Automatic annotation (TrEMBL):
This is Uncharacterized protein. It comes from Streptomyces solincola. It comes from the Bacteria.
Length: 78
């Protein structure tokens, strides 16, 4: 695995995305998931449009590494 130095705001956004996704999966059937879905959409846009991806380090491998790191961090925060 390559080692990338992700900006803290990008790593935080991806970690928050996984946390929101988990909350959405656990929502009660009677509860409205609208706010969490909106949060996911906002975070997705922030992650996809981050300036980091425009640089030379913004490779598909870096995207996968970011996801793996963030998923582990989000899981550790449970």
């Amino acid at each position: 695995m390559d080692v990338h130095d992700f900006p803290p705001d990008l790593l935080h956004a991806q970690t928050a995305w996984y946390a929101a996704y988990r909350r959405l999966a656990l929502v009660e059937p009677a509860a409205s998931p609208t706010a969490t879905r909106r949060e996911l959409l906002e975070l997705s846009g922030r992650i996809a449009a981050h300036p980091y991806w425009a640089g030379p380090a913004g490779t598909p491998a870096a995207r996968m590494e970011l996801k793996e790191i963030a998923q582990a961090l989000a899981g550790a925060g449970q």
